[in-house]
Structures
1.
Amino acid sequence: MILKQFKKTFLLSVAAFSLLILLQNCSKKKSELIWDKKFYKIGSQSSLRATDLNQDGILDLVLGAGENEYQHSEKGILAFNGINGDLLWQQETTDQVFGSATFYDITKDGIDDVIIGGRSSNLKALNGKTGELIWKYNHEPYLNDSILKNARFNFYNTILVPDQNNDGIMDLIAVNGGNVKAPANSEKERYPGVLMVIDTKNGQVIAADTMPDGKESYMSPICFSQPKSDDHTIIFGSGGETIDGNLYKILLSDFMDTGLAKAKIIASEAGHGFIAPPVAADITQDGFFDIVAISHASTIFAIDGTDNSIIWKNKIKGTESSNSFGVGFFTNDKIPDFFTFVSRGQWPDSRGSMQIMLDGKNGEIAYIDSIGCTGFSSPVIYDLNNDGYDEAIISINEYDCSIGYVERISGSIINKLIAIDFRNNTNFIIDQQQGFKNIFTTPWISDLDKDGYLDIVYCQYFSPNSNILAFLGMKVKRISTHIKTRKDPVWGAYMGSRGNGVFPLE
């Protein structure tokens, strides 16, 4: 019965979305579902990234996946042909791979290779053409190391940095941390997160140190170079859903010299940490990157990138957040603005969702809504109707929000892909699917096949009267829209189109 339900076809709901762009787009091209690929038993907390793996001129997609926690899966990492959604290759995993792919040509064959990680210290580099293993992180040699003995938990998204060991290729910054078995609201079994620089060629650790406050870490770091600087700035965070934490800043050169001894606290939160990745964007219009971060307590900090002073701060009371920002120009100025989700209630009893857009100039709430129940995917951003203002595309779930994460959904659930027009305070359904959910995966948008029109690729997960977090099957869809791509999206994927959390300077 479950398999029959899963195989049911669906009706793509693009009519309302078409109204959004009808007056702006005279093209005769129609939005249409190009492919829809189904997978049984598995699910994902990863987000899609795209590169051309088979050298056909069309972008392909990589997604981390897996079965339920601690279960082996043959389909732990998946690469999809962008043309038709067929699998180019798959790679097994011992646990869920929830990170998003970092692309780098390790093998020097002209094709991006894939670095991706997740639970149970899973971090692998794979040949982008074949999916074969190049290396995987092994924590066994470090069990007696005073620092790296702690790096046996989750790997989050990695970031490329300049070559640190003079082997001629870029290296990786990664964070490992977060004991999933630690009880909520308790300091027991909490181990310090580890910030690491890893050799991209072989997976060996070049440098590492534990969080300066000794706290756990769940945050993907970001790293960027300020204009006219030869060095790179790392932003990383500590703490959890119920554990105090800090947001830190350190120069890459200082980290390589003395570990995290010179790390500076630039924001703090009591009773909560920093989980969602921050973003770097120039909101002071001085030509330098500033930092915007949200704590798990839904306090948003805007921090000057030159002197670490607080530019503005806001708090969404009665909510919590593990969701990163979508960055774009939503208001009537040239200062980047910030859109995200927050959850009502307290983890793990989160019940309900709110969507918040903050004016980058002053941190004031310029848009607020409450659609669907709690979820942890992030927005993608583009000017869909060519009016000079960006819109957001989000994935939401509608069900009885009074049901907590550990409870079974007894009623219906529906996943919706929605576009939000902030200027006109309206939203439009792009697609919806009864009996499916999406809790974690951020959509991907760009011109996948270089035909001049925006493509949307996204995931939905089968949810028949089950625990909201259970993996029972999934589908990956590609919609070709009739929205002309006048320029490439800047924020078209999780942590931005380049996956580094940096909103480029103009």
Note: Residues 51 and 383 are 23 Å apart (CA to CA).
2.
Amino acid sequence: MIKPQTVITLQPSQPFSPMTSKTVSLDLMEFVESKILPRYSAFDKAHNIEHVTKVVRSSLKLAAQLGTDINMSYVIAAYHDLGMSGPRATHHISGGRILQNDMRLKKWFSPAQIKIMKEAVEDHRASASHEPRSIYGRIIAEADRDISTESVFRRTVQYGLEHFPDKDKNEHWERFLEHMNQKYSCHGYIRLWIPGSENEKNLSKIRVIIEDRTLLRTYFDRYFDEETCQE
């Protein structure tokens, strides 16, 4: 999935520090791709392997731009939604616990780094009322918000179909509309923590669409019909 151009492999006794590694360590990548990412195949379409792969790529890009440790950002992204194996409302807390309790990570990271990564996973959720506690939390929070009309609208439709299969189209529309207003509107709870990001620009575009309910319904109809194979 993520192919390194250069690999820096550190011994377990060597702590990572910002700018230590420019690309993901190969043995760490092999571990994550074989043991961690496949677990996403059990989740719904909004949190599946395609989603986590996008979050990983976005996290690596932001880490490179901001000069933080690539390996830490990679692991945080890979683990960030593992808590979806339990209740969705607390998946960020469960995900942080899963990361912290995975003793295999001690091969690559110090206890202090594992604590930072745990907190970053806990802080990634869009509805979090507090600012992430570290730059790593801000990176994963930003990377997890794949904010584009395609991603936001389609994933919302997918989640509704997956979790509320008995609803008819109009009921799905009402749920879709409620979610857009609660999360993405000008009064919504979503928060972005990296000023000037592409997500910030895209969120402004989505808010314009939300204000025009007729236009928003057009987007909903398109993605709903595609996901249910309706003509």
Note: The chain has ten helices and no strands.
